[in-house]
Structures are given as C-alpha cells and as structure tokens.
C-alpha cells in the first residue's frame, strides 16, 4: 500500500510512505520521479537503493551494498514510481506496459499516431528531456528540470511547452480516453438491457415449446426407452437454439460477451422483468405459462391424494376381503393378497392412465356396458377406476374362480354375483374389468 502526497501527476514522486508486508518505509525520489531508495520508517536506516539507466534498466542494491536480483523487502514501485511486474520486468504505466530492456512499449499507443508515427517508441528516444505519465504521450519537463528555478520540475500532465501538441496535451489526451471509455460503458449497458429483454421473451417461448413437446411425447405409441431418447434429443436441440440465439444477439449488438457491465445489465433487466410480470400480471405469455404449470401440479396432487385414499381404504377392508375369499365358488391362490391386487390396478399403462383407469375408459365406451362412463381429467379417471376395483375386491357377495385359456393362460376372476368383475393373472397382474356374465349371457372383458 502507498500513501500519496502532493505530486507532479500520475503518482510520479508522490509516495510519502509505503507499507509492505506489515512494514512501513519512506521512499526517496530523484528529479524525474523515480524511486531511488527505501528507508525503514522504524529504524530510520536505508533498506534498499535503486539505480536506473536512461531507459529504465535498473540495478537493485541491498542495505549491505550488494547487488540483488529482486527486492528483498518486496517493493514493486520503482521506475517512474510505477509498479514493476516481477516476472517480466515490465513497468505498468496505467494504459500499457513499458519494457526497459529494449526501451520500447510492449503495445501500440492507445491514442494511435497522436504522439508520432512510431507507436512503440518511448518518449521519442529522449527520456532525459520528457516524461510519459500514463503511457499516452511524451511531455517535456518544465524549465529543463532546473531545480533552482522550478523545484517541482513539472506540473502534473499539463504541458504548455510540449514540442508535439502545445498547451495541455496530456490533459486533452486523458480527457479523450476517459470520454471514449464512458461511451463504451454506456453502450455496453444499453446492449445488456436489450439482450435482457430478449432473454425474457425467448425464455417464455422456450417454456411453451417444452410444455407442448412434453404433452405430445406422452401420447406417442412407443416404448419408455424411445421416449427418453426423443426427450434427450429435444433438450440438445433446444440448447443449441438458445446458444445460437445468444450468439446472434451479441454479434448484432457488437458487444463482447465477457464485458462485465453488459452481463450485469443483461441479467438485471431479465430479473426485473420477471419480478414485474409476476407482480403486475402484465405479460400474458408469463401468465399462461404459470397457469399450465399450476394445472400440472394440481393433477399430480390429485393423483397423490387418490393413491393415499385408496391405499388406506384397502388396508381397512383387508379382513372383509379375506373373509370373502372363502366363498363357495373358490378361494384366491395363497400367494395373492388384497394389497397386491389393489396395487396392480395402479400400475401406469399409457397416456398417464393406470391399468384400472384405462380398462374403465375402454370398457365404459362399449354399448350396454354396466360400467359408468369415465369422466374428467386423467387423474379423475384413474380414481374412478380404482374405486370400482376397490368395490369389487371388498364386496361381501363375490365369487372367485380360477381358470385358463389360450389367450390369457392361467387367471383368476373375482366377480360380484350378478354384477361386474375383474380378472387377474395368477401372478397378480391386472388384466381387465368384466361385465355381468348372467346379464348378457356371455363374458365381456376389457383389457389393456
């Protein structure tokens, strides 16, 4: 850390104290503003000395008078009171680095040809008669650095004696750069706001695209593995669309994607619009998306409540089912339980319908069916089918019959006398509902 006092400008000869690793030092400067020595503020003894060539090549000397390669106290401020990079030896002037080993700047002048045709030359190869405060433009010392007539040697970066530009060359150059940076920052903020608005609109468009795809994919007549592969391909395609859209907007706006101001205004605009749309309800697109999500969550909640209700009722009627299994018509196989049969009806089949829900939907559509036509949402149809299954399994006047045929193999029928029934495989898999055998004179089965 440096404590700066009244200076000639751009930190040149300005430091009155330097703190390094918890130790305080007093720097000494020469007439050009270079740090030429450090004095320990506690002991008052010199710690290090620095000697420079005309173009800034330095020699470091420790307190014992020995030449050292690096500062033993870790002082980075030396030539022109600027910070020296320890790895390269380059000096940072604020706008570009200077390489003392070859007496040239490492990059071109930010002001282009304002300081002459050579964009890399340091002080027109005449560093004894001029100085460069920020890495922009060379400026002559006042009164030829005559300490007797002008103890300050020069006055900031103001230079009414500049051989290149005339009065106030340094101040004018600095003001020009500051204004250019201000314009760039303002445009970056504007571009970020525009991109943030674009993100807000496209995010809702992609949300509707995802919802529409999910609804259509669920009704496809294909295996679960195929559906997963389709969904993965869709996710990759949508990610590519988003990346391409971002690249297009950034290219159109002509802004660097890594610009911190641009990204801050982009994310801030998107967040503000999201909060405003939720609070005011002013964007129909967002309202529809929220409505669809709520409807989906409500359906999941209904299905969960129905599943818990049926499971509780089946458990409470376990004793009734066990008693009804011992009718004159037969008994359930010993390996089948009422809980197993009830759960078999809840297995998901197609389109979100359970085995019981799908069987009811297909069976009730038949003419003269004894089953009431299924109505409502998918979760409501599933609940109606499970209630019918529960009624058959717990009815006190039921008959149980084991049989087999070529289509279903070994199966078990559970049927209310003169009423509807249900068929299971001997392994406990739900096959379908059945109508009253006696009422229609034949067996009607609706399976999956």
Automatic annotation (TrEMBL):
Gene3D superfamilies: RHS repeat-associated core. Transmembrane segments: none annotated. NCBIfam families: Rhs_assc_core. This is Rhs family protein. It comes from Candidatus Protochlamydia naegleriophila. The lineage of its organism: Bacteria, Pseudomonadati, Chlamydiota, Chlamydiia, Parachlamydiales.
